[in-house]
Amino acid sequence: MKLFEVLVGLVLLVHLLWILWVILGWLVTRSRLLLRWSHVSSRLWGILIEVRPWPCPLTIAEQRLQGRAGSAPYEGSFLNHYLEFLIYPDVSTGALTWAGSGVCLLILAIHSRRFWQERACTLGMAR
Asked: What DSSP state is assigned to residue 53?
């Protein structure tokens, strides 16, 4: 039973790191093309998970491991369970979803702007 409690903690940590990557990953992707595309893909996945009725695989893993550890798994999404009550206590789930998606789209716009600026610089040098 102790093993599953440790695994729940590890999945929770991975989940938190994933969210930080999705939100702040753009800060470390400037000149790293592979990281940039990985971040863009992660961000698109994050948007889809939030606006579609698809469950997050990390949430499913955490809930199943909680059940195996002997505690009652939480219901709903990770964000609603852990973050909504701390950060947005009186905000509806729909508003939280749209706000999170809006932040994701804003950062995708930053990636797009960087791409076009770099492309313009590359084309300008080629002439």
From this structure: S
| Structure tokens, 43 | 């961000």
Q: Rounded distance, CA 101 to CA 110, Å? A: 14
List the domain range (segments joined by +) for residue 36: 2-126
Mean pLDDT per 10-residue segment, the chain (127 residues): 87 90 85 86 84 84 89 74 64 75 82 77 63
pTM over cut 0.70: no
* Strands, E assignment, the chain: none
Reported for 74-83, long-range contacts at CB under 8 A and 24+ positions apart, including other chains, are 78/15, 79/50
Number of domains in the chain: 1
